[in-house]
């Protein structure tokens, strides 16, 4: 039996569809009376948080019907068997929802609207803290007889384009991962553990946190938070965010005993703590933040315990204020 690795080949004949996907554009409207910003596949647009929940979103094909016909023919697929589906992904919990389709690919020529400016939109397009991503896929909508190096399964992705619309508050982020039984054993935690930060230090020296810090949340809780909306869910997520920040403070506190922070504003974690403190009306310079975390971590953690405004949430729930504002709905 051969021990060589198998050779994985892409499907043949899809170059035309891939080229059309590369010419798709996401039109993002941030105000009425102003031309929308056009995003190319693979690009990111950063907007103030207050604009993210109301942006208008439209897709533009950027090509003619004849080009789509030629691309389908080159792939030996009937034009009617090529569909488009648009998937949006929440920038934090990574919840994914189909926001358009599947529709015939030719409908992209009509520049379909994904969200009207300042109009209702899918919940995955409402994250004002982190933003969202838009994926456009050309897919095969009919099963075909199998042929070597040709797509034949219904639902096969033929070509894709991805766009990102992010908040200017988004630091590149700490995306939650499920705290599975395997991870609980690996980290030496209890099955009752809810949240844990795993890191490769020293964090305080890093300008970007890419791959150096992971937040693990109880697997069932994370799944539930990804599929439910409402005030109770927001309160849980806010509490978890505050707890994660407090754990991060103690990690940085330990590091600062032996490590000097970088000069300027290059420390990603100190920038994160400074922004969170500003959310509770405590405004400090980065050197002041470093000094506070190094010498008074308990005070910083106490300040950050209010970052999710849990006191206001609890008071409003107990007093019934929230029900009045929401018309009795949760």
Oligomer: single chain
State the secondary-structure class. Answer: alpha+beta
Largest sheet: 5 strands, mixed
- Poorly predicted runs of 5 or more residues: 1-9, 313-330
Morphology: elongated
Task: Tell me the fraction of residues in β-strands, as a range.
Answer: 15-25%
Number of helices: 11
- Secondary-structure element order, N to C: HEEEHEHEEEEEEHEEHHHHHHH
Percent range of helical residues: 25-40%
The span between the termini is: 61 Å
Kindly report the average pLDDT value: 80
**Radius of gyration over alpha carbons?**
24 Å
Structural overview:
With 330 residues, the protein is of the alpha+beta class. The chain folds into two domains: 15-167, no CATH class; 176-325, no CATH class. The chain has helices at 15-22, 49-52, 65-74, 181-187, 219-227, 231-256, 268-279, 286-295, 297-304, 310-319, 321-325; strands spanning 25-29, 37-39, 44-47, 56-60, 82-90, 96-104, 113-115, 131-140, 157-167, 176-179, 195-199, 213-218. The strands form three sheets. It has a five-stranded mixed sheet with strand order 3-9-8-5-6.
